[in-house]
Amino acid sequence: MENSKINNGGIKVFIGTSEINRVEEAVLVNSIKEKIAWEPKIFFLNGDKCTIEGPDFFQTVNIPSDLTNQYVTKFTAMRFTIPEICKYQGKALYIDSDQVVLSDLNQILQGISDEFSFAAVSVNNAYSHPRFRRLVLDRISSHRDLKNFFLASVILFNCEKCFFDVPSISESLKKGDFSYQDFIWLGPQFRKKFGLKVANLNPEWNALDSLPEGAKIVHFTDLSMQPWKFSHHPLLKFWRKFFLKTVQDGGISRNTLLNQRKHGALSWSTLMIGLSLLEKKKVDLGFNNLFIAFYDFIFAFIIESFWKVKSMGIFLLRSIR
Fold it and tell me: Which of 124, 138, 143, 157 stands the most exposed, by the fewest C-beta atoms within 10 Å?
């Protein structure tokens, strides 16, 4: 389908998602609409189907297999199709689905020069829960030069200054122009290859599992404690407020809740809270139900252990390539 309409209006928002991200995706969208001054143009990058869908827009994109099999999410590489999808015109914001927005997204454009190719939060400056910084962020660079690497989970693209497409990225990776690590953290070799200039976003625009004063986006990035799956996240009550508001506003259906639970993408307690609100009747919730509490605890322990082993394995494999 012709994508000329994608360049009309205010800021364009692209959300990276998949079939098992429907609950947190709905919460994110509801939080965006609560804060933005006018109805935003939102497009969804579906990593399972390699499709981009939005207002009067649908397109299938081809992502080389070497860019789909190396990282945690299926939509990781899809964000780099955005400048081409936008016909290298205007500005577009990419954001992962596992976040909530606390400010008008149009404010992200303020103070960013048109000379930049993209803007993102530097790893060095990022607000982060201590565990995620220790397990992930501090391991990105062996030289500890973290200011030269950036979080790709919130990117403001200046599309006319992004001289790349996904096939060219794939070819450059195969030739060894930069490492996968350098690419996915928007590192110096990736930027040098494509002549990209980066602007620093205020870290308030991508706070990782933390809620600093003035936070504008909170990102629930630690897969071992995301609050819709587990009960031990320190910001569980904070996220659940957005979840309950989304259910009340009709943004999440009963079928969505049951389907996400079926695929292991939702804790039993989150499911029961959502169903109780939809069905307008009391359901025994959280730690008042010993079975639910025990189930969530054991599941969280298993997933957390798996994530630690997997993250160490990922970094080990990349270090020897």
Answer: 143
pTM: 0.86
Nearest in space to 221 (alpha carbons), one of 212, 209, 231, 210: 209
Contacts (Cβ under 8 Å, ≥6 apart) of 92: 11, 12, 13, 14, 82, 83, 86, 156, 157, 159
What is the token pair recorded at 304? 């957390």
Q: Which two tokens stand for residue 221?
A: 């990035």
Q: What share of the chain is helix, strand, coil (3-state, %, to 5)?
A: 45, 15, 40
Are residues 212 and 221 in contact, defined by beta-carbon separation less than 8 angstroms?
no
29: Cα separation from own chain's centroid: 12
Burial 14-43 (b: 16+ CB within 10 A, else e): bbbbbebbbbbbbbbbbbbbebbeeebbbb
Residue with tokens 């909530």: 100
Sign, CA dihedral 18-21-23-29, equals: negative
Distances from the Cα of 215 to the Cα of 33, 119, 128, 136, 227, angstroms: 17, 17, 12, 21, 18
Q: What span, in angstroms and rounded, lies between the C-alpha atoms of 278 and 269?
A: 14
Please state the φ and ψ torsions of residue 13, each to the nearest 5 degrees: -115, 125
Taking the mean position of all CA atoms in its chain, how far away is CA 64? 21
pLDDT digits (tens, 9 = 90+) for 77-119: 999 999 999 999 999 999 999 999 999 999 998 888 889 999 9
More confident position, 68 or 139: 139
Q: Give which of 80, 75, 11 is closest to 42, Cα–Cα.
A: 11
Which residues is 14 bridged to in the sheet? Answer: 43, 94
